[in-house]
From TrEMBL:
InterPro entries found in the cross-reference section: TPR-like_helical_dom_sf
Family: Belongs to the IFIT family.
The species this protein was found in: Polypterus senegalus
Protein name (record): IFIT5 protein
Entry GO CC: cytosol
GO biological process, any: defense response to virus
Keywords, sorted A to Z: Immunity, Innate immunity, Repeat, TPR repeat
Record's keyword annotation contains Cell membrane: no
Annotated Gene3D superfamilies: Tetratricopeptide repeat domain
Length: 160
């Protein structure tokens, strides 16, 4: 539960129309920015729909875009993706692969000041939470505002 990922953010499947959300995510994937977040989110939705192999494929795309679009900050951008991988493999019963991703997260966090074993206070992570809550359902808008304010305080010049 220390991981910062869609599986730990308290999203309730009953709060959303998954078919509508899928359509909105398909639209967002076509945009030139935000690919890592969109593919992470799509992976979680596929998990909710019981399509774990599709979820893994979307996580791979999120990881690939993190490498491509955020090469200089890849480790920060991939934290949520690796958390999603760990939880997805856990739910699939592959504890060994889940542990591999936990180890990678721990290694990344060791290199970032003020990090715990599995999470770190980063505007990138808070920003992903903001977009997740805003896209998921109206009931999460107030929580999204809190994380938006937190992310903007950490990185006031970051337009995204």
């Amino acid at each position: 539960m220390q991981l910062e990922c869609y599986f730990t953010w308290g999203l309730e499947k009953e709060a959303v129309d998954l078919d509508n959300l899928v359509q909105r995510l398909l639209d967002s994937i076509r945009l030139p920015t935000g690919k890592v977040r969109s593919f992470n989110f799509f992976a979680y939705v596929k998990y909710l729909q019981g399509c774990n192999e599709d979820a893994l494929a979307y996580l791979k795309q999120a990881e690939d875009y993190a490498k491509k679009d955020h090469e200089d900050e890849f480790e920060k951008w991939v934290l949520v993706t690796y958390g999603n991988y760990a939880w997805l493999y856990y739910h699939m019963g592959d504890i060994s692969k889940a542990q591999d991703f936990l180890s990678q997260i721990e290694d990344i966090c060791k290199n970032i000041s003020s990090a715990s074993h599995y999470s770190v206070p980063l505007s990138i992570v808070d920003g992903e939470k903001v977009w997740c809550y805003l896209r998921f359902a109206r009931k999460y808008y107030k929580v999204a505002i809190i994380y938006f304010q937190k992310a903007s305080e950490q990185e006031p010049d970051d337009l995204e």
